[in-house]
Amino acid sequence: MIGKAQQQTDAPAAQEDSSDEKNKFINMDLLFDISELNLDSKIEQMKEEEFKEYVKLLDAFTENFPNQEEKIKDALKAKNNEALAEQISEIKNILERIYADEMAKECSKQIELIDKTKHEKIETYMRYFLSSLSMLSLDIQMSMHKAGKSAAFQVEDNEEEGSKTDKKILAVDDTAFFLILLKKKLQNTKYKVNCVTSGKDALKYLEKHKTDIFLLDIEMSGMNGIELAEKIREKGYKQPIIFLTGNARKEYFAMAMKAGATDFIIKPINRDILLSKIRKYL
Questions:
Q1: How many CB atoms lie within 10 A of CB 107?
Q2: pLDDT 10s digits, 163-197
Q3: Cα 160 to the chain's mean position, in Å?
Q4: Residues of 145-165 as b/e, b for ≥16 C-beta within 10 angstroms?
Q5: What residues are paired with 170 via a beta bridge?
């Protein structure tokens, strides 16, 4: 029998070993940064096998969400409230299991309101909700991808402490109207936003100017955002690259990370999320 004193001595070491094992599966700091997950002390209380199962649930969510998203869009297009409620219910079940409690409650609320709400209002809400789910999926994928890794980026800052010089953002999107909206979202902030409408123009800009962070649309004509990111990294720029996208699929995510992505923002862009992501790296 192990005496009480021995149990107290051994417990911290066992806890530390368990923590090390968990870090092999997922970056715990990034995981706890995901505000949608109500983790509290749940992770610390899990045994290693329980934690492995939790990671599998997170992985299943990111794997299955794109297909569920398509089914929801199909149900909306067909104005099939029964199919829509069924798909929302499936998402609610996995959100509960990964402790995304508030999002799960929103699902329950929407299921109750489907037959009492005008279709146009349902469509508007579901676009917003799907965007939030896509962002959650990408944040989870980031925590898995960067397990045990340090972020490969840096912010150049040659200004003296206390300088009022604005941090510079280079935004690249082949839709000028989107860049106007993006710039408007960053009005009255300390960031100076420079915009170009092609990868070619972005590379020309970098020949004469410095930037502290990149905001790159992925789906661009000509040179797309992933190709541009590859060229930016090839030229030795290590500043953070945040991709702007509407796609949360794993294969898409993997290509972006390989090209040098630091983070992602889902379109349509929410100003609070945009500022939160930028502040995270500047």
A1: 22
A2: 445 899 999 999 999 999 999 999 999 999 999 99
A3: 32
A4: ebbeeeeebeeeeeeeeeeee
A5: 194, 214
Contact 111, 75 (CB under 8 A): no
In the structure encoding, which two tokens stand for residue 66, read together?
Answer: 């794109």
* Cα–Cα distance for residue pair 219/241, rounded to 1 Å: 15
Within 10 A of 209 (CB to CB), how many other CB atoms are there?
A: 10
Residue 123: Cβ within 10 Å count: 14
Contact 249, 272 (CB under 8 A): no
Report the alpha-carbon distance of residue 278 to residue 215 in Å, rounded: 9
203-250, pLDDT tens digit by residue? 999 999 999 999 999 999 999 999 999 999 999 999 999 999 988 999
Whole-structure pTM value: 0.83
- Print burial letters for 16-33: b (CB count within 10 Å at least 16), e (below 16): eeeeeebeebbbbebbee
pLDDT digits (tens, 9 = 90+) for 96-148: 999 999 999 999 999 999 999 999 999 999 999 999 999 999 999 999 987 65
Instruction: Single out the residue of 215, 228, 220 nearest to residue 185, CA to CA.
Output: 215
Show the tokens assigned to 209: 């100017």
Coil, helix or strand for 243?
Answer: strand
Task: Tell me the two tokens of residue 87.
Answer: 């798909």
Q: Are 269 and 244 in contact (CB under 8 A)?
A: yes
